[in-house]
Design brief:
The protein is α/β, with parallel strands linked by helices and 506 residues long. It has one domain: Alkaline Phosphatase, subunit A. 27% of the residues lie in helices and 10% in strands. The strands form two sheets. Strands 1-2-12-6-11-10-3-9-7-8 form a ten-stranded mixed β-sheet, with helices on both faces. A hairpin with a 5-residue loop joins strand 1 and strand 2. Helix 5 packs parallel to helix 9, helix 7 packs parallel to helix 8 and helix 12 packs parallel to helix 14. Pfam families: Phosphoesterase. This is Phosphoesterase family protein. Keywords: Hydrolase. GO terms for molecular function: phosphoric ester hydrolase activity.
Length: 506
């Protein structure tokens, strides 16, 4: 196996030759798979400087550049320190729609058929945002990266366990399509968050877990509102949606389900968002990662747990690696714009388990990269009763068993991870609450506005909720009521009022 020494005494172990010579994975020793999916950061922006760039680690050399509309060069760069302003770069929020990402990848929003992405349009697209959105747009903001010293938690885990430099978002699209892929292995043909296309009736991996009566079942843990509730087939399982504090308890007591999916805080409400969505303060996401790791690490099920930390999409942040072609999950429908034959931009992915060798850089054994459906492929491999692939995409996705190469759970990792101190002041929260909603927040608002009767019954049963939702949606989609969508605070207040029964199930 090929390896080499790098600074900080970590050894990079390329996991492309695993299983040769009869070497087996420890996947069957795993009883709990936990996924934390954060928001809108590229691999280069978070982990591009984890190790020096080499054939063993596809990070940043420092010479990568984009040009603006006038031909001015903007190289990748770092801003020192951990101030709020630095840890919020880029600000304002970059574009992340399907046409925005096309421009970022190809330098044009309408690339020719068969064109290969050259990653040349990030700065130009960021400049274009200024034409229709308020704020001061420094063109070079999207070329910014953090150093390991600025994001010590994810960097520590990436070096202690495995970092994957070949994990791409499932599609060159916004948040919702990519989150649908991790749950259903498809976006059902929808390339943007909005307009909404209710009902979302795709088969989910959670339904497979229910059908197989998998011991331990599943839970989705959330902070303020779970985006996954937009999937109709999960609406019958409201009691499986639990507040994040329950995850901390379940992990520490060893009562985690077979599959746990964790959603961050998307809105400024009682505290600031911890999703790392630009321009939210990245340090708060670091604290969330540490909270998840510390809870699992201190629990009795640590040596039987696989933790995956990844991001739904890149959110307009620069990455230098062109996404490869992808297997479409299903045939393209005539009314849709995109056939999903291309992956999205590369995103961070860290694989954590005592069975992962120290300093692993994880790469697949074929040209097919890891993407969000690799999580579904891993679940199906670990639990064969979950059945065949959900779609053609997860049918070809590499699974994560190749990361688990230790015969025994010997890489226990640090007992506890400390985080960079950060506490939002009341003034910080107040400013965030009066900001306009971002695309993710606006789409969640749109979702709840289109459930006319809401989910407000004190003891509303799931089947009643489904009946109401289908009746409402059959009458056509509605706009957001006047006076609601003007700021983040109004949005989350309205969402919680409409989804009241969901919060009473926890």
């Amino acid at each position: 196996m090929r390896s080499r020494r790098v600074p900080a005494t970590f050894e990079i172990v390329l996991s492309t030759l695993l299983f040769k010579g009869g070497k087996m994975s420890a996947l069957n020793q795993i009883q709990h798979i936990v996924v934390l999916m954060l928001e809108n950061r590229s691999f280069d922006s978070m982990l591009g400087k984890l190790y020096p760039k080499s054939s063993d680690f596809d990070g940043l050399s420092g010479s990568e550049t984009n040009f603006d509309a006038a031909g001015v060069a903007y190289p990748v760069h770092n801003s020192a320190g951990t101030s709020d302003a630095t840890m919020s770069i880029p600000a304002p929020d970059p574009g992340e729609s399907w046409t925005d990402i096309n421009m970022q990848l190809f330098g044009t929003s309408a690339p020719q058929s068969g064109a290969k992405p050259d990653m040349s349009g990030f700065v130009k697209n960021y400049q274009a945002q200024a034409a229709h959105s308020p704020g001061v747009y420094d063109p070079g903001s999207v070329m910014h990266y953090f150093t390991p010293e600025q994001v010590p938690v994810i960097s520590k885990l990436a070096r202690q366990f495995a970092v994957c430099d070949r994990w791409f978002a499932s599609a060159p699209c916004q948040t919702w399509p990519n989150r649908f892929f991790v749950h259903t292995a498809t976006a059902n043909g929808y390339e943007n968050n909005s307009p909404v296309h209710f009902p979302y009736r795709m088969q989910t991996i959670y339904n497979r877990i229910d059908d197989a009566q998998l011991p331990g079942g599943w839970k989705i843990y959330f902070h303020d509102v779970p985006q996954s509730i937009t999937l109709e087939k999960l609406s019958l399982s409201l009691s499986r949606f639990r507040l994040f504090d329950e995850f901390l308890t379940d992990a520490k007591t060893g009562d985690l389900p077979a599959y746990s999916f964790i959603e961050p805080r998307y809105f400024a409400d009682v505290s600031l968002p911890n999703d790392q969505h630009p321009p939210h303060v990245v340090t708060l996401g670091e604290q969330l990662i540490a909270d998840v790791y510390n809870a699992v690490r201190s629990g009795p099920a640590w040596t039987r747990t696989l933790l995956v930390i990844t991001y739904d999409e890149h959110g307009g942040c620069y990455d230098h690696v062109p996404p490869p072609p992808a297997r479409p999950p299903e045939p393209k429908r005539p009314e849709t714009a995109f056939d999903f034959s291309r992956y999205g931009v590369r995103v961070p992915a860290v694989i954590v388990s005592p069975y992962v060798r120290l300093g692993t850089v994880l790469r697949p054994q074929s040209d097919t990269p890891f993407d969000h459906t690799s999580i579904i492929a891993t679940l199906r491999k670990r639990f064969p009763t979950l059945g065949p692939p959900l779609t053609a995409r997860d049918a070809v996705a590499p699974d994560l068993s190749i990361a688990l190469t230790l015969e025994n759970p010997d890489n226990l990792g640090p007992d506890w991870l400390d985080t960079t101190p950060y506490s939002a002041s009341p003034a910080d929260v107040a400013r965030a609450r009066i900001a306009p909603p971002n695309g993710m927040q606006a789409a969640l608002l749109e979702f709840t506005a289109n459930i006319q009767n809401g989910v407000t019954g004190a003891a509303l049963e799931a089947r009643t909720f489904i009946g109401q939702q289908m009746q409402d949606l059959s009458q056509g989609l509605n706009g957001v009521p006047d006076g609601v969508a003007k700021d983040v605070a109004s949005s989350i207040t309205y969402i919680k009022s409409r989804l009241g029964a969901l919060f009473r199930t926890v």
